[in-house]
Automatic annotation (TrEMBL):
Signal peptide: none annotated. This is Putative spermidine/putrescine transport system ATP-binding protein. One of its GO terms (molecular function) is ATP hydrolysis activity. It comes from the Bacteria. It holds the Pfam family ABC_tran. SUPFAM superfamilies: MOP-like, P-loop containing nucleoside triphosphate hydrolases. Belongs to the ABC transporter superfamily. GO terms for cellular component: ATP-binding cassette (ABC) transporter complex. InterPro entries: AAA+_ATPase (IPR003593), ABC_SmlMolc_Importer (IPR050093), ABC_transporter-like_ATP-bd (IPR003439), ABC_transporter-like_CS (IPR017871), Mo/tungstate-bd_C_term_dom (IPR008995), P-loop_NTPase (IPR027417), Transp-assoc_OB_typ2 (IPR013611). One of its GO terms (biological process) is quaternary ammonium group transport. Residues 5-238 form the ABC transporter domain. It comes from Tepidamorphus gemmatus.
Length: 360
């Protein structure tokens, strides 16, 4: 089967800022791909180069088997959904969605055909009944659906979404996530969705691509990226790992917080640098009273409780290390009562070596 997208050796600099550095990526057809990375890692630049809004300095983009060299943006068969939607405020929902069909340069559709297609799309994104409302007379979530419908109605082979849910509040964002997934599955086209949010990437993407300083740091299914981040930086972006820097020697990883035996831990090789990192997930740490010990096959450190933060279904507790730095512990409230720790009191933080990842 032809790949939906093939990107090879893409580089792009702005002056002396390297936004993309030799990026290669192959995306199969009919996939939901999340593109994740910290601010400035090159996500938007990558989308803009794929879409044809930006010329790369080097490299090639192939969409559905067709090389895109010198193909202008509007002839690439790519749809683009922006965060700010860029809708026409004075036009109705229906006119916004049909705009690209009747006003395109190549083969504009006859109004009757365009009408039928717009009607189907309005039903698909759940806007039936709102066809004649103006854009300023509908809600943020409905605008998001108009923006999506306007792109999908042109039947693109690939849809690029740049933080499409960023302008929505948390509740709506969660609802739109599952809607986006469902719409994509019904149409069977490939979505490449940029997000700064690791939860969003992990919740939505069949495949997660992580960018780090203009380079691809990891590509994999959501579970494998989550369970086995390829580098300390990827672990850091995922915001679910405590990272300790230090050095590996023999069977021990030595950090300022303590010496961790590594037998049983997951090993990730990062090119033989001496400076390494040791990662343990927030939700794999057990908190015990300071007096309670640990069994020989557990790792234990001591720290001082600072505060807890509730985030809906879970609570994150922060513990200060004597050597400086914080350890975060996440408890899911579905299978535990909310923890009650005392401020400034010391606790033992315990985990199993199998739940740690050693980067060295
Ligand atoms: N037009 C431009 N001129 C100069 N520098 C640019 C331009 N566009 C992007 N950059 C720089 O290129 C790098 C990558 O930017 P890009 O917008 O692709 O990152 P991003 O991952 O999308 O970030 P964010 O999540 O903050 O949107 C950044 O250092 C940015 O400052």
């Amino acid at each position: 089967m032809t790949n939906a997208l093939l990107v090879s050796g893409l580089s792009k600099s702005y002056g002396n800022v390297v936004a993309l550095d030799d990026v290669s990526l192959r995306i199969a057809a009919d996939r939901y791909v999340s593109l994740l990375g910290p601010s400035g890692s090159g996500k938007t630049t990558l989308l803009r180069v794929i879409a044809g809004f930006e010329e790369p300095d080097a490299g090639q983009v192939v969409v559905a088997g067709r090389p895109m060299d010198r193909v202008p943006a509007h002839r690439r068969g790519i749809g683009f959904v922006f965060q700010n939607f860029a809708l026409f405020p004075h036009l109705s929902v229906k006119e916004n969605i049909g705009f690209g069909l009747v006003n395109r340069e190549e083969a504009p559709l006859a109004p009757r055909l365009a009408d039928a297609r717009v009607r189907d799309m309005i039903a698909l994104v759940g806007l039936t009944g709102l066809e004649s409302r103006r854009i300023d007379q509908i809600s943020g979530g409905q605008r998001q659906r108009v923006a999506l419908a306007r792109t999908l109605v042109t039947e693109p082979k690939l849809v690029l979404l740049d933080e499409p849910l960023g302008a929505l509040d948390a509740n709506l964002r969660a609802r739109m996530r599952s809607e986006l997934r469902a719409i994509r599955e019904r149409l069977g086209i490939t979505f490449l969705h940029v997000t700064g949010s690791e939860t969003e990437a992990l919740a939505m993407g069949d495949t997660v691509v992580v960018l780090d300083r203009g380079r691809i740091a990891q590509v994999g299914d959501a579970a494998s990226v989550y369970d086995r981040p390829a580098s300390p930086n990827v672990a850091r972006f995922l915001s679910c790992y405590n990272l300790f820097t230090g050095e590996l020697a023999d069977d021990t990883f030595t950090t300022a917080a303590g010496r961790f035996p590594i037998a049983g831990a997951v090993r990730q090789t990062t090119g033989g640098r001496r400076e390494g990192a040791y990662a343990v997930r927030y939700d794999r740490i057990e908190v015990r009273p300071a007096g309670a010990g640990a069994s020989p096959d557990e790792v234990r450190i001591e720290a001082t409780f600072v505060a807890s933060e509730y985030t809906g279904a879970s609570v994150t507790s922060f513990f200060a290390l004597d050597a400086g730095g914080m350890v975060e512990v996440e408890a899911h409230l579905s299978h535990r009562a909310p923890p009650a720790y005392t401020e400034r009191q010391r606790y033992g933080l315990v985990w199993r070596p199998q739940d740690a990842i050693v980067f060295a």
